[in-house]
Amino acid sequence: MCAISIVDKPVSYSPSTPIRVEPVQARSAARVGALLDAACQTMHEVGYEQLTTAMVAERAGASIGTVYRYFPDRVAVLQAVAARNLERVTQALRADLTKNAPATVNAALRTALDTLTRFFREEPGFRSLRVGDVLDIRPLAGSRGGNAEIAAVIKDYLHDAHGLRLDSAGRVAIETAVDVVDALLGRAFMHSDRGESTVLSEAQRVSQCLVQEFTT
């Protein structure tokens, strides 16, 4: 995961963050954030497949040279957006799990579905790229996908908050359920800003079936 924080100290990035120049000042960090916001807004309208660096520059009111100062190409932009999406959704999921305090795998997965549904509805561009698993744009060979990171948040919460230790089958079940939720939410929001209710219901039903064995 990577974070772009506007702070009074140097901003740190993970090795996987595809940014040419590390912005060490608040102004530079804000510029990168504006470029990513522009990319998200554009993807909300045209999808990630059509996104170009020229579109990002135009939407951000910046020169193409400014885009290339931080991102070598459109794939690097997509990687950075996916990383930021992942950071935001995992932070929100941790907060929702803490607030709702689900004590079972089923309940924790329902919380995750609610969190993800909210991002699909409210976060510009999220429904197109999500956390990057929709397109294999992970910069490091062997790195975990975004959905695996989301599943890890659920597993860590259940262990830390309720002492629930899952065996390998339980861990795989949660990871598979998150993959299924991601795919079905993508379908639910393909032509609907609110999400097709029948597909949302199916996402809950199928994901719950996948973890039914681990309800205690």
Brief account:
63% of the residues lie in helices and 0% in strands. It is mainly alpha-helical.
Mean pLDDT level: 87
Derived from helix and strand composition plus strand pairing, the structural class reads mainly alpha
End-to-end Cα distance, whole Å, is 31 Å
**Helix-residue proportion:** 55-70%
Q: Quick one: overall form? A: elongated
The appropriate CATH architecture of one domain is Orthogonal Bundle
Structural account:
With 216 residues, the protein is an all-alpha fold. The chain has a domain at 82-214: Tetracycline Repressor, domain 2. It is built from nine helices and no strands. It has helices at 26-46, 53-60, 64-70, 74-100, 105-122, 126-129, 146-162, 168-188, 197-210. Mean pLDDT is 87; it is low at 1-16.
Secondary-structure map with pairings?
Elements: H1 26-46, H2 53-60, H3 64-70, H4 74-100, H5 105-122, H6 126-129, H7 146-162, H8 168-188, H9 197-210
Helix pairs in contact: 1-2, 1-4, 2-3, 4-5, 4-7, 5-7, 5-8, 5-9, 7-8, 8-9
Question: Which characteristics define this entry?
Answer:
about 220 residues, mainly alpha, Tetracycline Repressor, domain 2, 9 helices, elongated, disordered N terminus
